[in-house]
Amino acid sequence: MRSFLSLLFWILSLVAVQAQDSFEKALRIHVEELSSDAFNGRQAGTKGEKDAAEYIARSFSQNGLELLYPKGFQDFSFIDEKSKDTLYSQNIVAVIPGYDPKLREEYIVIGAHYDSQGTYTMRVNGKDSLCIYPGADANASGVAALIELAAAAQGQFFMYKRSLLFVAFGAGEQGAMGSWYFVNRAFPASSVKMMINLDRVGRSSTDNVPMAFCGKPNYELEHLLTHLTTSPFLPDVQVYGTDYFASDHQAFLDQNIPVCLFTTGLHPYHQTLRDTPDHLDYKNMDAFCQYISLFISEAANDSGDIFRDEQQVTITGDDPVYAYSDVDKPPTFFNSDLRSFMDRWVYKYLKYPLEAVRQGIMGRVMVSFVIEKDGEVTHVKVTRSVDPLLDNEALRVIGASPKWKAGEKNGEKVRVQITIPVFFELERTR
What is the band of 430 on the pLDDT scale with cuts at 50, 70, 90? Predict the structure, then answer.
């Protein structure tokens, strides 16, 4: 039954993506509006930023989303580093409640900062000329995507187990003050299961491909993101288990909340007067949004694998134990590396438990073990569980490993701890 429901949800998600009207026209409208001179560069703490906030709140409301706080505004203040004045900004927060009674109090935050660089005065031929930073890609593109992804999600609100929060952050160019305030002062961080950040998503090109950054290694999250690129009609998104640039996701990462930064990257026009709407690729931006929309659905309905923390393992013995990356010569399996161990041993002898197949149980089991000085494999422990059926099979295979060649540090054999992911996957029937 679980396998059937998972398959049904996957099919419905793909149908939703295929049926989704193109975001392209709406994305262009939002970017051109937010980048216009009417908002005076959207500098944090100014009337231009406040006007942009009101535009976003209206867009959320017109698309049927429920706004939190008066007019959707979550007000906060910050100290301007240059003037030392107290300035005021606001986050705009909209919610789509989840339908699952057990999971609806868990939140997926989808965010983008909406402020930009503002203005500066340049002297030309003896006269002052006001220059306005359009900020089309940084970050009107992310806000445009945020608005349209929220509208798409509202159109299929009945499909999300967890609740979705769409948040436009103020003062992003002031050290990401809006996102810091949200997760540290205004909302219980323990309720946030993931933060999805949209920052500079409009400059697709040969050098700027769609990318997803997880902030730090998260095998389950990276695997899901990579797997989605195989879906029909979706772009090839490059996935990284690292961070990229400073942005609003970092306040969440500091709280040990899984994050995903979606971006097409930095470019020469970044934070210049040439960051204008005509330089954005709206067709590829549309395709990127389709991918992100499906990812939001997957995260909101995930069984919990991508949010689960790894357990710490206590290793006994008198001799110190080193991490795989901290030794001069890492342990080798049949004179080869970890990939060889996975291919020639783990996945060669791993048997998918029949009961797990019957119940549709799948996921990633993280297993830690130690290669001793004599090459023996000891202290085999599960650090991230999926289900006892899968956990025990992963432990069985790794625990039965032949001897390795020990690792070395400073010319001496040492004990080395290794942690690896063991994937159990069931093929989806088309």
Answer: very low
Q: Give the distance from CA 80 to its chain's centroid.
A: 29
What's the predicted TM-score (pTM) here?
0.78
Quote the domain boundaries for residue 276.
Answer: 7-307
CATH number reported for the structural domain that contains residue 300 in this entry: 3.40.630.10
In terms of phi and psi (left: phi > 0; alpha: psi -120 to 50; beta: otherwise), the region of 360 is left
Looking up residue 399, the CATH number of its domain turns out to be 3.30.1150
User: Do 197 and 113 belong together in one domain?
Assistant: yes
* Phi/psi of residue 83, nearest 5 degrees: -90, -20
3-state secondary structure the chain: CHHHHHHHHHHHHHHHHHHCCCCHHHHHHHHHHHCCHHHHHHECCCHHHHHHHHHHHHHHHHCCCEECCHHHEEEEEEECCCCCCEEEEEEEEEEECCCCCCCCCCEEEEEEECCECCEEEEEECCEEEEEECCCHHHHHHHHHHHHHHHHHHHHCHHHCCCEEEEEEECCCCCCCHHHHHHHHHHCCHHHEEEEEEECCCCCCCCCCCCEEECCCCCHHHHHHHHHHCCCCCCCCCEEECCCCCCCCCHHHHCCCCCEEEEECCCCCCCCCCCCCHHHCCHHHHHHHHHHHHHHHHHHHHCCCHHHCCCCCCCCCCCCCEEEHHHCCECCEECCECHHHHHHHHHHHHCCCCHHHHHHCCCEEEEEEEEECCCCCEEEEEEEECCCHHHHHHHHHHHHCCCCCECEEECCEEEEEEEEEEEEECCCCCC
Question: Are residues 97 and 12 part of one domain?
Answer: yes
Same-domain status, 190 and 302: yes
pLDDT of residue 216: 85
Angle of helix 282-301 versus helix 2-19 axis, rounded to 10: 160
Q: Map tokens 């709407």 to a residue.
A: 277
For residue range 236-257, list pLDDT tens digits in order: 999 998 999 999 999 999 999 9
Query: Is residue 315 situated within a structural domain?
Result: no
Same-domain check for residues 288 and 399: no
Domain boundary among 246, 274, 307: 307
- 429 pLDDT above the threshold of 50: no
